[in-house]
Design brief:
24% of the residues lie in helices and 23% in strands. Helix 2 crosses helix 10. By secondary structure, it is an alpha/beta fold. The chain contains ten helices and 16 strands. A seven-stranded mixed beta sheet has the order 12-11-10-13-16-14-15, sandwiched between helices. The protein has a five-stranded mixed β-barrel with strand order 3-4-5-7-6. The structure holds guanosine-5'-triphosphate, magnesium ion (MG) and zinc ion. Guanosine-5'-triphosphate (GTP) binds next to helix 5 and helix 6.
Length: 384
């Protein structure tokens, strides 16, 4: 643990002879490393790495290669940890200094619990405000390979504004995003079916992978597996869209709690109450809950573990730390044209010779995406 060694070396005392004497503490704790898979209140469940790894080595991208690289193996031991008392919060506005997906170092206590000493630099993370105007921010998860936005057209209805806010955040943090329309089995109404088709075309045209699936019938699940196998995948969306049901369908052994119809359709009650990571592995065509070390896995099909992150439903997605100037860069279809705007600081609202407005006019940019852009821009300006 580099940081720890550093502090040891710095332990310098003055002796009565006036010379500095270095000494090594005999009580150097043994640090272990692991992945935070669940956070509840002040407890963090940490899945232990069975081999030392380089997440704290200080390299530019210490965790670039994911957990599931050759040097890393996980064992199935999980340790419940607390955060060391004097741990300095990153920034002061984040409600949670440690999120699922964080790699941490911890010291085991006599009672079997652990104390987290340090959190490795994050490769990326998804952060939101509880509401558009709230000051406090919450990191949903860290070190993610893909964001799957789970959306439904009916019960509950996911708006394009909500989808676009999540997409923009993913763009800003360089997290590849996909949209998963769940409950496609319920689209008996031709109007709903058509509405979904329009959204599918719209987002595919922008460049995002879009899937139509059903956790109930299994429709589209193979495509979803192809999209996420071997990665750390965050599932996010409104309460009741079927995030937990989808994870259960992908990997039946998970047995996650899903909402009753009466729970969510009327009251919007949240069934999943905290984010949790589930490492799963691919057996012969079926995904199963991980119970062995990765090295023992068959490498024929998908050689890696897949980390599924189930999260509580969110009502609105309050975005964090965007400037009005950079916003259009996070809409790929705007990014493609905005260098042709006449004014370098064009807000794409009303300026003459605006390339974005021209693209909106001739259909290269969809009205709903442009509407989301304006709405987010308003939020940013209100917050300033
Ligand atoms: N018909 C149909 N129902 C589904 C499908 N997926 C989920 N459901 C139902 O939708 C309801 C909500 O599912 P959950 O998986 O609990 O939803 P969630 O997104 O995890 O909700 P939160 O945990 O509250 O965020 C349950 O009654 C599921 O049975 C689907 O593909 N088709
Ligand atoms: Mg759930
Ligand atoms: Zn413009």
């Amino acid at each position: 643990m580099q940081k720890y060694e550093k502090s040891l070396k710095l332990k310098v005392k003055s002796s009565k002879f006036g010379k500095n004497v270095y000494f090594c503490s005999p009580k150097m704790p043994t640090m272990e490393e692991g992945l935070v898979i669940r956070t509840t209140g002040s407890w963090y469940r940490v899945l232990v790495f069975s081999e030392q790894c380089s997440v704290f080595s200080g390299a530019t991208h210490p965790i670039d290669n994911q957990l599931n690289t050759k040097h890393l193996t996980l064992n199935t031991q999980a340790v419940d940890c607390r955060l060391r008392g004097n741990y300095r919060l990153r920034g002061n506005k984040q409600t949670n200094p440690v999120a699922v997906g964080d790699r941490v170092s911890f010291e085991r206590q006599a009672d079997g619990t652990g104390v987290i000493h340090d959190v490795a630099d994050r490769r990326n993370y998804i952060v939101r405000r509880a509401t558009k105007l709230s000051k406090q921010t919450h990191v949903i998860a860290a070190n993610i390979d893909r964001l799957c936005i789970v959306a439904t057209l009916g019960l509950p209805r996911t708006s394009t504004g909500f989808i676009d806010r999540l997409l923009v955040t993913a763009e800003a943090y360089h997290i590849p995003a996909a949209i998963v329309f769940n409950k496609s089995d319920l689209l008996v109404d031709p109007e709903l079916r058509e509405a979904q088709q329009e959204l599918v075309s719209l987002y595919r045209a922008v460049g995002y992978p879009v899937l139509e699936v059903s956790a109930l019938t299994g429709l589209g699940l193979d495509s979803l597996r192809d999209l996420i196998a071997g990665r750390t995948v965050l599932f996010s969306g409104h309460s009741g869209v079927g995030k937990s049901a989808l994870l259960n369908a992908l990997c039946p052994g998970l047995d996650l709690r899903v909402g009753q119809l009466s729970d969510w359709s009327l009251k919007g009650r949240h069934t999943t109450t905290f984010a949790e990571i589930f490492p799963v592995q691919v057996g012969s065509g079926q995904w199963i809950v991980d119970s062995t070390r990765e090295q023992a896995l068959p490498t024929a099909h998908y050689p890696r573990l897949t980390y599924l992150i189930d999260t509580p439903g969110i009502k609105e997605f309050g975005m964090v730390d965007f400037s009005a100037q950079e916003l259009s860069h996070f809409f790929p279809e705007m990014r493609a044209v905005l260098h042709d705007c006449h004014f370098a600081n064009c807000t794409h609202r009303h300026e003459p010779r605006c390339a974005v407005l021209a693209a909106l006019d001739d259909g290269r940019i969809s009205p709903s995406r442009y509407q989301s852009y304006l709405s987010i821009l308003d939020d940013i300006e209100t917050a300033d």
